[in-house]
Amino acid sequence: MKYYEVEGSTVDEAINNFLIQHKIPREYIEIEIIEKGSKGLFGFGKKNAKIKIKFDDNEYLKRRSKVILAEILEKAGFEDFHIEVIEDYPYYTLNIQSPDSSLLIGKMGQTLEALQFLVERLLNVDEKSDIKILVDVENYRKRVIEDLKNRAIELANKVKKTRRVEKLPPMIPMVRKEIHTALKSISGVRTESYGDGNIKTIYIIPEDIK
C-alpha cells in the first residue's frame, strides 16, 4: 500500500492529475480530502485543493499483469490458453496452460523469458515492490529450475571435495540467475558465467582458485 499527497485547482483535478501521471484506473485508489480549496476573490486568496491518496499497488500489479499477459498472447496469435494465478508471497505467478505450451516455452525457455521481459516492461514494476511477478508455462520454470538447482548443489559439493571445476548445461539469464543465487549459500565455491549472447554456461569453481 502506498500513500500520496496531491494538489490541484479542484479535488477532481488533483485526482485526474494523479491518475494520468501514474497511469492507473480510478478503482485502485481511495481518497481522503485534506483541503477542498477555494477560488478566492478576484484571484486573491486562492487555495489549491489537497488530497491524500491510498493506492493498493500490489493488487493493481496482480490484476494488471494478468491482463497484459493475455493481451500479449492474443496479439501473438495464441487463442487457446488459460492463465492460472498462483500466489505464494512474495511471488505472484501467471502460469499459462495451453496446447501450444512448447511454442510458448521456446528453445531452452527463450520464449518464456521474452514473455517475462514484456510483462515486466509493460507493467513497469517498481524494483522496490513487495511482490514479484513471474510468468510460467505449464510449471516449466518450477520444474526445470528446481531440477537444475538440485544438480548444481550436487556439483558444488563435488567441487568442494575434488577441487576441480565443474560446469552446468548452457542456460538463459532467467535460469542462470536462480542458479547463481542458490549456490551463494554454499561456502568454498563460486560461480561464473561464460559464453556469447544470452545463453551461457555456469562454471562452479573452488573459491580460492583465481
Secondary structure topology:
Elements: E1 2-8, H1 11-22, E2 29-35, E3 49-55, H2 57-75, E4 82-88, E5 91-97, H3 101-105, H4 110-123, E6 132-137, H5 140-162, E7 166-167, H6 173-183, E8 189-194, E9 201-206
Parallel strand pairs: 5-6
Antiparallel strand pairs: 1-3, 2-3, 4-5, 7-9, 8-9
Helix pairs in contact: 2-4, 5-6
CATH homologous superfamily heading of the largest domain: K homology (KH) domain
Q: How many distinct beta strands? A: 9
CATH class label of the largest domain: Alpha Beta
Which architecture name of the largest domain does CATH use? 2-Layer Sandwich
What's the arrangement of strands in the largest beta sheet? Answer: 1-3-2
Strand content: 25-35%
* Total individual domains: 3
- Order of helical and strand elements: EHEEHEEHHEHEHEE
Helix proportion of residues, in percent?
A: 40-55%
Using only C-alpha atoms, the radius of gyration works out to 24 Å
CATH topology of the largest domain: GMP Synthetase, Chain A, domain 3
Sheet with the most strands?
Answer: 3 strands, antiparallel
> What ranges have pLDDT less than 50 throughout 5 or more consecutive residues?
none
Category by helix and strand content? alpha+beta
Overall average pLDDT? 89
- Our measurement of the CA-to-CA distance between the termini, rounded to an integer number of angstroms, reads 46 Å
So how many helices? Answer: 6
Tell me the overall shape. elongated
